[in-house]
Amino acid sequence: MRDKIAFESRYASSPNEAKGMNTEELRQNFLIQDLFVANQFRWTLSFFDRYLTGGIMPAREPLSLEAPEALKAAYFLERRELGIINVGGPGRVVADGVVYDLEYKEALYLGKGTKDVQFQSLDESNSAKFYLNSTPAGHSYPSRKIARNEAEVVELGSPETANHRVINKLIVNSILPTNQLQMGMTELKSGSVWNTMPAHTHDRRMEVYFYFEVPEGQAVSHFMGEPQETRHIWLQNEQAVISPNWSIHAGSGTSNYTFIWGMAGENLDYGDMDFCAITDLR
């Protein structure tokens, strides 16, 4: 199974370092590409809150979750919790004998101490794509599936400001208990392209954005950096970007799209944000 795990570590970067990075250096430090390769777990560990971002696309037989050697753990969830959102065809996760079937855009939380986890696709012609986020955990909370109709839904923005969007809170503390992991999904309405605008930062947690449903031939420009010293990274469909706690995280696409946000840190308060006035951005 070890040859079916691709693992990469990314060191934490300071605002001063990011200011001096060229395009390729920004992409090397913050962009996560190629999340879905058939029958291979793809992991990127960020030293911001030791956040793991990954993907698995089981194209044939069920695949078992194993701990990469760098985690120095007997099993993956020995000291971690895991959030899963299916962004592909119908799939199944079996966790310590409990079966969870996940349709498109459904989520699953697996608590610390879950030992045996398997991923599989239920349609050979349409593989499941499990997007994975994992954070260190000190307490074992119950595992739980979150269907689309169980999400906490908030509608924000307007067509006039091109940011009319629906926020689906999936793995958040208002729905189920977690140690620090929070995940949700924001869907932009047709004609809207801006997400998370006005932009914000939050000192007590970092974030990862995963962009998908980006139409073929289109792209998203993700904006990062301190409010007065911003940078941008262009992303294609099914790519992710690491957002440090000191950085804004906002994006604008050449079409509408959907993104999954995942967060970790010492704060579970979704509304704890330091907003940046649009006219103050530089």
Automatic annotation (TrEMBL):
Set out the biological process GO terms recorded for this chain's protein.
D-galacturonate catabolic process; D-glucuronate catabolic process; pectin catabolic process
**Binding site residues for Zn(2+):** 200, 202, 207, 249
For this protein, the record's InterPro entries field holds:
KduI, KduI/IolB_isomerase, KduI_N, RmlC-like_jellyroll, RmlC_Cupin_sf
Give the signal peptide as a residue range, or say none if absent.
none
Q: According to the UniProt entry, what is the EC number of this protein?
A: 5.3.1.17
What NCBIfam families does this protein map onto? PRK00924.1 (NF002091)
Q: What is this protein called?
A: 4-deoxy-L-threo-5-hexosulose-uronate ketol-isomerase
Origin organism is Persicitalea jodogahamensis
Encoding gene, per UniProt annotation = kduI1
